[in-house]
Amino acid sequence: MSAEPHKKESIRSPKGMRDIWGDEYYRYQGLFEKAQEIAVYYGFQPIETPILEHEELFSRGVGEHTDIVEKEMYSLRTKGGDHLVMRPEGTAAIMRAYIEHGMHTIPQPVMFYHGGPFFRHENPQRGRLRELRQFGVEVLGTQKSIADALVIRTLMDILEEAGLKNLSIDINSIGDTDSRPAYTRALINHYKKHVDALCPHCRERIKSNPLRLLDCKDERCAQWKTDAPDSVSFLSQAGKQHFKEVLEYLDSLNITYHINPTLVRGLDYYTHTVFEIIADRGTDSADEKTQINADGKGADSADGKTRMHADEKEADRKDMAGLAIASGGRYDNLAKLIGGKKPVPAVGGAIGLDRVLMMPGVKAPAPRIMKKPKIYFIQIGFEAKLKSLSVIEVLRKAHIPIIQSLSKDSLSAQLAIAEKTAVPYVIIFGQKEAMDQTLIVRNMENRSQETVKLAKLSEYIKHIK
Which of the two residues, 321 and 116, has the higher pLDDT score? Predict the structure, then answer.
């Protein structure tokens, strides 16, 4: 019996991953450059860690009983027998680099910014893909509360510079090693009273990762979250003071925040401050701010299409409103969890770039390091083609990027491409221009044009940009 013929699969990117090109690439590039610029002004320096890391780094640092480790990591085994994973998050890798390179010997704190792709095998949803892109900042080597505020301020600045408005902070303190055990016991006791009504995941979380009970989105568990014990009530005196200082810094910066007692970000390495930066909640809660006292207690017509477009934009806004677009917290326990000899107090946070660029009203800055071309270079005739690369070199040295189709010969074909790319200017280099050492610069908006000497081209282009 003959084997069934192999069915050819369509060639496409894996689920939850995608290609980024054209204008979308420049939007990512511009946002990343703006984030870099702001981070540098606050004193952060760049670091890049490998996309592949040892699996143990995350199972020990993030926690064996977290969704990231149990369900979401892309893992592989090398020919040498190493168990590696594609990095699911950035914080553990930054701490690994700090320890590996002996950064405790340089002046503290050590401040880094980082970014790039991260990978989680989860169900893709709006603004959350299996290959996700983030930009993060980390402050390692200090337990001072001002470092927590610095991280939040930096991330807020980046988002505001991207045009996002009505941002607010959900913030909480989940305590330190002195206060966490008592809070965890109280949480377990509360949920055990309702164990038969809980979803299967939460029945398991009671044993393996109690803090994650508060992360559950299942409606069966929602009612028990409302009256669950709040972590702030269990803070040690040092924990209360730290949290109080963080909130005072946010007050001084006029940053809107809301103390969310169910916010725990249930990764094993978090201590003290945890936060999420939330997209526009709407008018009901945009100005909401809760204080904390010294004891640590929480206080169809002609314009039919226009209206339809506005309605769609409003639907998009409501769809994205209330989403966390950045998050982070303090992770004083991480160094010890991954095998460090001494604890390293640290705090950090990261922005989900994919989700930010999907937000209505976002204005990704134009990239500066990698500029979007504004000129289409057209050559006509063999003599011009011979000299075209030399002309492009003149423009390159003047830092003027272009689009070109040197393989084309027809003027009309090249002009058609220029029209499609919507560049504002075209340079035409023909036989006569090649002989005269000149070029024609055409304004594609008003169709005016001017003949320019090749020797003065770069200065002319810089003037019209």
Answer: 116
CA Rg value for the chain: 28
CB atoms within 10 A of CB 347: 31
Q: For residue 295, is pLDDT > 90?
A: no
Asked whether the beta carbons of 213 and 265 are under 8 A apart, the reply is: no
Among 226, 218, 214, which Cα is nearest to 199's? 218
**Model pTM?**
0.82
By residue count, the chain amounts to 465
Q: Over 410-452, what HEC string results?
A: CHHHHHHHHHHHCCCEEEEECHHHHHHCEEEEEECCCCCEEEE
**Torsion over CA of 238, 243, 247 and 252, rounded to 10 degrees?**
40
Spatial contact of 154 and 325, defined as CB atoms under 8 Å apart: no
Kind and range of the H or E run holding 172: strand 168-173
Block residue for tokens 């916010």 = 263
Task: Report whether pLDDT(325) > 80.
Answer: yes
Q: What pLDDT is attached to residue 293? A: 41
pLDDT at 321: 59
Backbone phi, psi, residue 443, to 5°: -80, 115
Please compute the mean of the pLDDT values over residues 342-365 and round it to a whole number: 92
